[in-house]
Design a protein that fits this description.
Layout: H1 4-8, H2 13-19, E1 27-31, H3 39-46, E2 51-56, H4 59-71, E3 77-81, E4 96-102, H5 111-121, E5 122-133, H6 150-159, E6 162-170, E7 174-181
Parallel strand pairs: 1-2, 1-4, 2-3, 4-5
Antiparallel strand pairs: 5-7, 6-7
Length: about 180
Amino acid sequence: MPGEKEWETYFSPRKTLVALGLKKGMVVADLGCGYGTFAIVAAQIVGNKGKVFALDIDRKLLRVVEKRAHEKHLKNVIPILADISAGKERELLATVDFALLANIIHGTKSKFRLLKATADLLKPNGVVAVLNWKVEKTPRGPPIRMRPTEKQTVRWLNRAGYVDPVVLDVPQYHYAVVARLSRS
């Protein structure tokens, strides 16, 4: 993973999160949050009545997220050391309105298990947004052969119980598939 400052040049977090449907008061899970590129901005968008669970398997990255949240006086960011694909985040079960998987699905062995574990976190009709690198040459990102297409991502989401997938172009090097959990 590149350095924090370089990493942020590949995204427009505020524009992306608003386009994906993030709103005030939501409870968000940023799975594989890294440096908090999206988690910090999500916390600002959802405001004091909302909450952002920032999950990652790297304790050092979670410390960066904690520091950034503290610097911005954000009290609604909750860092959690966890591997979401293991499905052990019991305290979050069915509490999340919006789950973000930004640039993590390409490196996950069991995409289906990851998406099912994410579904367990979501409230009925909760939303997942899967952000991926476009399948084209970009200045950064995984090898093109590892990058899933929009169609593959939609298939994985449908198989895992999500419905109404919408594919969005996310400047400048990404696309996102947003889908709703079909559970009432």
